[in-house]
Amino acid sequence: MNETLSLNLRNIADFVSLEEVTALAQQSVRHLDSLNNKTGAGNDFLGWMTLPDDILPQLDNIEKCAEYLRSISDFTVVIGIGGSYLGSRAVIEALSHTFTSLRQDLHHEVLFAGQNLSEDYIADLLEILDKVNYSIVVISKSGVTTEPAIAFRIIRNHLEHKLGKAEANKRIVAITDSSKGALRLLSQKNGYRTFVIPDNIGGRYSVLTPAGLLPIALCGFDIRLLVGGAKSMEEISRTNRNGESNLPLLYAAARNLILQSGKTTEIMVSYNPKLHYFAEWWKQLFGESEGKDGKGIFPAAVDFTTDLHSLGQYIQDGQRILFETVLSVREPAKKVTVPEEEDDADQLNYLAGKRMSYVDHNAAAGTILAHNDGNVPVIHISIPELTEYYIGQLFYFFELACGVSGYILDVNPFDQPGVEAYKKNMFALNNKPGYEEAGKILKERLK
Length: 447
Ligand code: PA5
Prior knowledge:
With 447 residues, the protein is of the alpha/beta class. It has two domains: 6-42 and 226-408, 3-Layer(aba) Sandwich (Rossmann fold), CATH 3.40.50; 48-223, 3-Layer(aba) Sandwich (Rossmann fold), CATH 3.40.50.10490. The chain is 47% helix and 12% strand. The protein contains 18 helices and ten strands. The chain has helices spanning 18-27, 29-37, 51-54, 59-72, 86-95, 119-131, 146-163, 165-170, 182-190, 210-218, 223-237, 247-260, 276-290, 312-317, 356-373, 388-408, 420-429, 436-446; strands at 6-8, 75-79, 109-113, 134-140, 172-176, 193-196, 265-270, 298-303, 322-329, 378-383. The strands form two sheets. A five-stranded mixed sheet has the order 1-10-9-7-8, sandwiched between helices. Strands 3-2-4-5-6 form a five-stranded parallel sheet, with helices on both faces. α15 links the parallel β9 (322-329) and β10 (378-383). The longest helix is centred in the C-terminal third of the chain and has 21 residues, at 388-408.
């Protein structure tokens, strides 16, 4: 039987009392009501709340499209940035074999592009694309974001030269706004197959739309289980007005009380490298949703035990502005034990016969206590195993917590006015028509 992720607040008790947490969670029911009744800030971006049901009629089409691309190509280049990329990458990295690129037995591989403006990155990718049979999925809600737009132009040109425009057009799928933006226009002109990111869902809440689901399905993962996991979390939280049992509400309350105690940075800690991109997704969700009006908790992430040998020192002993949210997986998918050696030259026989996960769990338990002793509160979230279902639960858990947490902070968790500043400067410095005056001023400042 499927379980629910668990939230353990024991290791924050020396910093904020659990009574305070449940009290704030209960008070925050009004924010949950605002989300459900669409009466709070950003209320035209709440489509994600009922997505686990609303997306169901589209799953067949998404699966069929993934099957089609897998049947005509060995690779798909998935182009997108921010919310149009991080959710699918989080799931794909979490569920793929660690050494995917070295395995010969895979049906289909996804290569990512459009997340940077690095010439070397795109040149390396083109070298690979010269030699392989590939398709393109381009994802941009606005349809005009510079990084994916440039990557798409370059890779589309490559595919058209390789196969001819007519064949290339059959291998391009665009996921974008229903009517606006350059990508929608291009799709209409060239007859690309398309999916829509609904108007009422912002990028960082879009993982359960085709933007996240098509790349995940392309890699052969079960999008129905993912959506099912999200649905299970929706069922126990979206309309649950009991603060004591509502997990996203408790998490939102705990992190805000810890913030009020002076800890301004939350570090997501994971002990499984496969969760690295999940933490990237989480960073974007909370960073873009809360970091505004001079407010917000700064979201950071580390991979333990790797980073215990770098940032571990700071976390234990540096500025006391940190708290951690540990995300752990109770049961690994595979089993490896430490072998016994007769001479015990490396003195590890005390672990002989033990599983790696035994050592890892003890490392995690010991680190939580050490960090607690170093004045670092630790929230602990765990899932039974790393599967589509539990990742779906995590997505909905954090999305709902983020909406409530934004309202506790009194910010609009569904806009991102701050990301425009760099874009304007970049356009001006690149001489984009309409930005000439701003360009002159910036170039003076750079002299
Ligand atoms: O969450 C967001 O809204 C952003 O991170 C966007 O997803 C990101 O900027 C990409 O935008 P677009 O999908 O319009 O290309």
